[in-house]
Design goal:
WbqC-like family protein, 6 strands
């Protein structure tokens, strides 16, 4: 059976986790170049005023070196900005009235207290927390070289593109009565609203 090749996002969208629950091996792309405007350092949640972007600030190369490519695994987080405090505050504000926020918050909150240097390290920890919350046994590998044509894999790396519009079936969201259903938000939106049913929902997606 072919493995599914994916990028590692920051609490990726529902469409990303739909692939992770499929009965196939998972391989994360560790050798790609970093690109802006992707789910590597951003997620979207449902805030009181609609769709809300949470973005992790990253260190940029000096202007003299900005034409050079940086590997995703080498991207450092910009620590001068108090993004962790702001992201956790936004998550609490958005989901503290959701059915399952209190059930999971003590597993997720430590991510916003620990000091991280590299974005990829943080994202792997986010992934581990979701696996724990959903009690998912997901074995995965990491690439050791970059494949431009990943013919030996089921290539789903395009799911990292935050501009990609993907529609998914509705579930009940906290502020849905105000702005309607918002499709393909962060896995946290599904988790806080659906709780233990999250895995069944993901497996039902085509």
């Amino acid at each position: 059976m072919q493995e599914i090749l994916l990028h590692l996002p920051y609490f990726g969208p529902v469409s990303h986790f739909r692939e992770l629950v499929k009965p196939a091996g998972i391989c994360f792309e560790n050798e790609d170049n970093y690109q802006k405007q992707t789910y590597r350092n951003r997620m979207y949640i449902y805030g009181a005023n609609g769709k809300l972007l949470l973005n992790i600030p990253v260190k940029h190369l000096p202007k003299s070196k900005q034409r050079q490519h940086q590997k995703y695994r080498d991207i450092k987080i910009e620590k001068d900005l108090k993004w962790q405090k702001q992201h956790w505050k936004s998550l609490k504000s958005a989901y503290q009235t959701s059915p399952f926020f209190e059930f999971y918050e003590y597993e997720i909150a430590p991510l916003y207290l620990k000091d991280y240097n590299f974005l990829m390290d943080f994202n792997y920890d986010c992934f581990d927390v979701i696996r724990s919350c959903l009690q998912l046994e997901i074995d995965f590998k990491k690439t050791e070289e970059y494949f431009n044509d990943a013919n030996d894999f089921i290539d789903k790396r395009d799911l990292i593109n935050a501009k990609k519009n993907i529609e998914i079936p509705e579930y009940v969201q906290v502020f849905q009565d105000k702005f309607g259903f918002l499709s393909n938000l962060s896995i946290l939106d599904l988790l806080f609203n659906e709780g233990p049913n999250t895995t069944n929902y993901l497996k039902s997606l085509k």
